[in-house]
Amino acid sequence: MTNSLNSLLLRKFIHLITVVIPFLYLYVFNREQIFILCGILSIGFLGVDLIRFKFIKLRRLFLKVFGSLLKGEEQDRKLTGATHLFLSATIVICLFNRDSVIPALIILSISDACAAVFGTIYGQHRLFNKSLEGSLVFFFVSFFIIIVFSDLRIVVGLLISGLLTLIEVLPIPVNDNYSIAICGAFIFNMVL
What we know:
192 residues, mainly alpha, 9 helices, globular
């Protein structure tokens, strides 16, 4: 396996672990508690990013320790994917009800990671900046999550999966941690 594939697999494994947030919301914490947790994580990750932007020595140390986990653009002066993910979780928890947030964040954690790994390894057909194969995985994993974690009918689940896949694949100039979480929670809020 190449270093870039190993890096992707490790990044997406960490991304998968963030599924703990919607499960904590589902089974352990109320809205205020999960909002505080995600807010603290957001502030912490954002703080680390801002500090590494400002201080060159700390940036070097950060890159030495975490550099292999970062995408190329994140190594310079861009927020990390983790920062975006926790900020997006905080935003949707603040704006939407629990039943809308939980499937949106599970899709963000699982579908996005599965699509990236599958698309990188097996992707043969380009679709904008993604692969058709990865996008199909995103669609089917999202559909499965919707069926398991909501009471929606199959046809509605298929439509939502299709919409979220379209949002994920289109070259929208917004980090997909925001577009998937916010659009997902908004759509679930409309139909649940």
